[in-house]
Amino acid sequence: HALSGLAHGMVRFWHVTDAHVNLFHSRKGDVRDMCRSAAPDATLRPGKFGHFNCDPSLSTTSVILQRMAEFEPAPAFILFGGDTFGHVPPERESAPSVRKSHRAVAGALREHFPKTLLLPALGNHDTWPYFAA
What does the entry list under GO cellular component (predicted)? Predict the structure, then answer.
């Protein structure tokens, strides 16, 4: 049972929120535009693992989940607070893109925590159009 640790007064879980995964991440993106457009020179590019001005790629998100699993591989549950979809260029904003983002992040969570109960919540970037929840 996921909450069996409560009998002992303690339960370990992860709370993951606002992942904002950018499935369209480009290493050549401009960090001044949340990596949504091409950077004019290499000093403004996020590189493989991104930049704090930009949403993370799926590969960066996977590395984060891997590290979480190394620290606590069997949490009682994962509370997933929503806002999965990244801040992408307007031409990439669509219901299929939002669904693809949800599937990708859910798949990454399942890969690293295959037996863990996942408790999702909707965020304002988890619907199309935005803020429709």
Answer: extracellular space
pTM of the model: 0.84
Residue 128 CA neighbour count, 13 Å, CB half: 15
- The whole-angstrom separation of Cα 98 and Cα 85 is 6
- Residue 105 falls within a domain, yes or no? yes
Distance CA 29, CA 62 (A): 20
Domain that holds residue 69: 4-120
Burial of 83 (0-12, 13-18, 19+ CB in 10 A): middle
Confidence of residue 24 (pLDDT cuts 50, 70, 90): confident
- Residue 96, pLDDT score: 95
> How many structural domains does the chain have?
1
- Please list the alpha-helical segments (H only) found in the chain: 58-71, 95-112
